[in-house]
């Protein structure tokens, strides 16, 4: 039998029946059996809410909680009105209320009233605290909203997240604000419920006593006993239900959401997190148990103190044993993984590929690569793994290239032991030495005075720098120095090396995958490329673009222009020239200065420069002295331009001269961009500031 349609219909009509029942409770007197059932349902519902709020790990697992608070309060007030009507009318209030009254009062009216008042005070304290929690949470959530939104926008601009993730985070943030705002409002209903309960209790006692003596002709003692019993019973069953809902609200409002390494809420319930933080190790249990046993020896009841003390010591022993077993299992698992990675003498395998990028570190740098290590700046440290993942995402968003994962491994043979080596395809391309527990202070033009420290050269740019102690961090920053942590140094160096060697990661297989991806949205381009069947030449075009840090994000345009040029020539430089002209706006956009202009350095006497072509590749055939003088004049003009806070690029009149000069710059490790006059976009203002 399929009950799903019935269930869906039941969910739809449940709210309607609830509203109708609420109105009926306010108007029509209810029989005792209905009141008993409603009280039982209220207690069960309150218990479910309390258990749920205690076990959820994040606010968004109970988004309807403000509505739950509101509806439970409104329906409980309706129950109170119904029971009050039955009490003061002398009718049958049901067995639940009368039984609860007998349980609390037990023929002692004064004791019953005192117990009831104590429960009422507890309810008021919890409700008042929950209401205050709601006010503070809502206010601080609203105050933090602009900063959190800006943080999401910054991550999006830096390429750390994509548009879809940013929208998801903003939507969740807005839902969180709405949740705590609604919770603040619902908290006011909880306080109001307490005052309403007090008012109804007073009415039940006074009016019930009058009704019993006047209308029912009962003696004072009997009337007082009967109506006090019913009032206390009614108050207790309602207070227990209200107290569970109020405690649930306090738990949800007091919950502090903790993030894991991925920025998502940790999957820990309230009880789990309390135990993890209150009892972090077995030592606390040993001490607490020993103190209880000592107190039992000093004259206090021994059995009542020794048994809990022994249980605490036993729990501490079990915790210590389990922790030791977990550490051993973890160590064995790590050892097993290392053994599987090692080459055995029984089986010899030849590795036919190399790791694209490897970062090798000395053994003393290992703490900096642990996920739970601390940062020298005193804050929660971002691991090198986080930074490399962010770096790969930035390259993907900025240049349109997928960087392979960066492998990090220790190398005990590195000397000194704080050295690191960056390898590209198993070849060492850069290295540096870090001072453990030190910070690198790099002078800037804003330095006002020198700082005490060990002189050195920064491993990235070779500039003068100082190794300083952690406690000199604020002093160095105040004096105008840039301060870098060891992780920042390595990550920045890695970023620089990756940017210079992006083209090495473009394999023929990756080019084929790119064409396949483009073909999913542009099937015509895929068909044309299949007819050409020359992925090797397309690979050379893409490599040429990446060597000069030109983005290949607009891959459909690049492939389309490649196909068009391929039908006319097979010369690589001619094809690259054609492709660059098609994406010229994108190329020059990266070189536009803050004032919106493109500043150029032209080349003198271009017609006198000799350019030879070898297999379609243009090379500048000028002697070494001419090349050195050219670069010296270029450096001088760039320094002059930087004093004016502008970054110029080289421009050539002859198209074939552009790649030739660019290759010369590459040979001398100079990163000044070179464009041709045919790549200048018409909508961008440009100005020639020098000629060399």
TrEMBL record:
Protein name: Flagellar biosynthesis protein FlhA
Alphabetical keyword list: Cell membrane, Cell projection, Cilium, Coiled coil, Flagellum, Membrane, Transmembrane, Transmembrane helix
Family assignment from sequence similarity: Belongs to the FHIPEP (flagella/HR/invasion proteins export pore) family.
Annotated source species: Priestia aryabhattai
Superkingdom as given in the UniProt entry: Bacteria
Keyword Ion transport: no
GO biological process: bacterial-type flagellum assembly; protein secretion
Membrane topology: Multi-pass membrane protein
Residue runs in coiled coils: 318-345
A cellular component term, taken from the record's GO annotations: plasma membrane
Main localization (coarse): membrane
The UniProt record lists the keyword Transmembrane helix: yes
Transmembrane spans: 12-30, 109-127, 194-214, 235-254, 285-314
Subcellular location field: Cell membrane
InterPro entries: FHIPEP_1, FHIPEP_3, FHIPEP_4, T3SS_FHIPEP
A matching Pfam family: FHIPEP
